[in-house]
Design brief:
By secondary structure, the chain is α/β, with parallel strands linked by helices. It has two domains: 70 residues, Ribosomal protein L30/S12 (60s Ribosomal Protein L30, Chain: A, 2-Layer Sandwich), CATH 3.30.1330; 167 residues, Alpha/beta knot, CATH 3.40.1280. Helices cover 48% and strands 16% of the residues. It is built from ten helices and ten strands. The strands form two sheets. It has a six-stranded parallel β-sheet with strand order 7-6-5-9-8-10, with helices on both faces. Helix 3 links the parallel strand 2 and strand 3. The radius of gyration is 29 Å and the shape is elongated. The chain starts with a helix and ends with a helix.
Length: 295
């Protein structure tokens, strides 16, 4: 009888031990899952905080400390003294801004954004008015690219990558209307956006006139041009203008160009992706200049 009772107690204890063990394992798995995802959430939050800032005071301080701001989203109908102070500084520093509904701001952050969110730039922008003289002084032949309202970040990144490989001296972007140079753009460029000087200017017509006055030939890549790109001389200082895939180059810029070229299409599709088209033209420049150097 005693042995049967001991056996029964042992079985009960064993069963309890297994239950306790299984409970501990389930708890451990849940804890590890929570810990992993909690850390991931913290990391994502930190990344978001380094890319964006919100609220009047933080954005005003960022502007005053000369942080490079890519764009500011402003709630429609916003008013008040702080808004006036911010708007004056935004205008003065020529920071791109856009009025948006509050729903869009709420999707970006659940924090108290006060109706304003700013995106800090991944890139330190430079001035084409400083770069061109420096290129000439260094004894190089200027090679500039202007991108007119290219809105896809992956295209911007791919173009920057081709530009870096081709030895482009600077890429010029409009202050408004182009893609945000964010983390996706940097990834698409394989880091080229950190190597090629990036310029952002509010008046590209004035930039084009400056380039022409500096002895740089400005050439628009235009599908209705008569001359093909391989019949164009790129040996001298040159600036290539590329437009977006839907509207092409704005007429205000096209009429300021010294010349225009096209990439001939043989197939049934009317045009190339803008990053591919840019690469085709840039490496025609490289080919021609390499041939001259090897002679």
């Amino acid at each position: 009888m005693s042995s049967l009772r001991d056996m029964a107690v042992h079985l009960v204890n064993s069963s309890n031990a297994r239950q306790i063990y299984n409970t501990k394992m389930r708890f451990r798995k849940k804890y590890e899952f929570f810990k992993k995802n909690h850390v991931s959430l913290q990391q994502n939050t930190n990344i978001m905080q380094t890319d964006t800032i919100y609220g009047f005071r933080p954005i005003l301080e960022a502007i005053e400390s000369e942080k490079t701001i890519d764009k500011i989203l402003i709630q429609k109908g916003l008013h008040g003294d702080l808004f006036k102070d911010l708007f004056i500084k935004v205008r003065h520093h020529k920071i791109p801004f856009q009025y948006v509904p509050i729903e869009k701001l709420n999707k970006i952050t659940r924090g108290n954004h006060q109706g304003v969110i700013a995106f800090l730039s991944e890139i330190e922008y430079q001035s084409i008015y400083d770069i061109v003289p420096a290129v000439f002084e260094a004894g190089r032949t200027p090679f500039i690219v202007i991108l007119d309202k290219i809105t896809d970040v992956r295209n911007i990144g791919a173009i920057a990558r081709s530009a870096e490989c081709a030895g482009v001296d600077a890429i010029v972007l409009p202050l408004k209307g182009g893609a945000q140079l964010n983390e996706d753009a940097v990834k698409s460029s394989c880091g080229a956006l950190f190597k090629v000087p990036i310029c952002r200017h509010s008046n590209l017509v004035e930039v084009i006139k400056f380039l022409k006055d500096s002895g740089i030939e400005v050439i628009g890549v235009y599908e209705k041009a008569e001359k093909t790109y391989f019949n164009k001389d790129f040996i001298q200082p040159v600036c290539i203008i590329m437009g977006n895939e839907y509207e092409g180059i704005a007429w205000d810029y096209l009429r300021e160009c010294n010349d225009s070229i096209k990439i001939p299409m043989v197939g049934t599709i009317a045009s190339l992706n803008v990053s591919v088209a840019t690469g085709v033209v840039l490496f025609e420049v490289v080919k021609q200049r390499s041939c001259v150097l090897s002679m």
